Inverse folding.
């Protein structure tokens, strides 16, 4: 009796409130098999067990709300802890540099981690809050990404409603593959720079 | 392609132009590790696609309802209701609940359903009424 089975059973038996709760908690950072849940919800819509618009609205609100909780916890809880540590041990300059990087590149990172590389989502909520990424900008990147995620996954579940488990497996692995490819590209690019004639050796 | 190009560059480097620093070798290892991870996950993503191409059915799990199984296996729901001795009306319970109510294991339920599905899918399903045989008329 796996966690997945229990979650999907609960969604089938109790509907939207459970879907809302599961996505909210997972968005904060609890590793629930949420992709499968959402794809399954799309299939349940197709079979007439759930209704499309309420599913999309509830799931989107839950996801966005969960992200704000994760962001808020790290910004107003985690950050003060970090400040206390840096005051004692130093390293404030490094933190400031991380903040600058997050402000410059954080937006697209937040957007793509909502729907393409979903495993990174909760992490980016925490780093964004920790780096004091402006909250309004966070919401502006976060909300469209989450709505896109919900619509995409529910639609896939609706279209391939008879093979929910396969779809979720494929999506999960593709997400990790894209992340690994991105990392490989960054390192590959660094290597090329190292070995290009006259390239920097830094 | 990129990997090949980078490796060629590296080997040329190894044959003595510049000395490779410790940091560069760490980056090279990180590159290879992340590339192999990417390949690993691509393979894992493609595998279910192939599986699903050849065997169309997904395994029956405890969270599924009879309606879902019927939908996934493309058989009429009443066939599955019959197999479990249930009345032919929508049943929203997950299989695990049905199993509990019937004092059966989920494996038992799964086997009963699969059996019924195989029967329902036969090219010429056994008809409930006796076959009409014109040659045998009295």
């Amino acid at each position: 009796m796996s966690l997945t089975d229990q979650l999907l059973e609960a969604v089938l038996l109790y509907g939207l409130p459970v879907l809302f709760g599961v996505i909210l908690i997972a968005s904060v950072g609890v590793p629930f098999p949420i992709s499968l849940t959402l794809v399954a919800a799309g299939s349940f819509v197709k079979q007439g067990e759930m209704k499309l618009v309420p599913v999309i609205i509830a799931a989107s609100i839950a996801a966005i709300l969960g992200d704000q909780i994760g962001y808020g916890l790290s910004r107003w809880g985690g950050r003060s802890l970090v400040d206390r540590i840096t005051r004692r041990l130093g390293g404030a300059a490094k933190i400031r540099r991380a903040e600058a990087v997050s402000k410059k590149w954080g937006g697209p990172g937040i957007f793509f981690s909502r729907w393409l590389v979903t495993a990174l989502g909760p992490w980016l909520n925490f780093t964004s809050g920790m780096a004091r990424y402006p909250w309004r900008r966070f919401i502006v990147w976060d909300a469209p990404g989450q709505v896109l995620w919900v619509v995409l996954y529910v639609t896939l579940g609706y279209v391939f409603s008879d093979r929910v488990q396969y779809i979720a497996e494929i999506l999960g692995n593709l997400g990790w593959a894209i992340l690994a490819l991105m990392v490989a590209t960054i390192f590959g690019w660094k290597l090329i720079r190292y070995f290009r004639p006259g390239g920097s050796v830094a | 392609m990129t990997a090949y190009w980078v490796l060629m560059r590296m080997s040329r480097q190894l044959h003595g132009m510049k000395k490779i620093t410790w940091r560069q070798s760490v980056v090279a290892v990180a590159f290879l590790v992340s590339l192999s991870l990417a390949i690993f996950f691509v393979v894992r993503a493609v595998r279910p696609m192939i599986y699903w191409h050849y065997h169309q059915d997904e395994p029956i799990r405890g969270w599924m309802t009879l309606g879902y199984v019927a939908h996934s296996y493309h058989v009429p729901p009443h066939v599955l209701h019959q197999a479990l001795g249930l009345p032919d009306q929508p049943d929203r319970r997950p299989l695990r609940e049905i199993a509990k109510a019937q004092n059966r294991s989920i494996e038992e339920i799964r086997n009963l359903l699969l059996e019924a599905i195989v029967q329902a899918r036969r090219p010429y399903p056994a008809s409930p009424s006796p076959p009409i045989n014109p040659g045998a008329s009295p």
Summary: The CA atoms of residues 28 and 70 of chain A lie 5 Å apart. Chain A touches chain B at residues 1, 4-9, 12-13, 43-44, 46-47, 49, 161-166, 169-170, 173-174, 176-177, 180-181, 183-184, 187-188, 190-192, 194-196, 201 (CB under 8 Å). Chain A has a mean pLDDT of 88. Residues 3-195 of chain A form one domain.
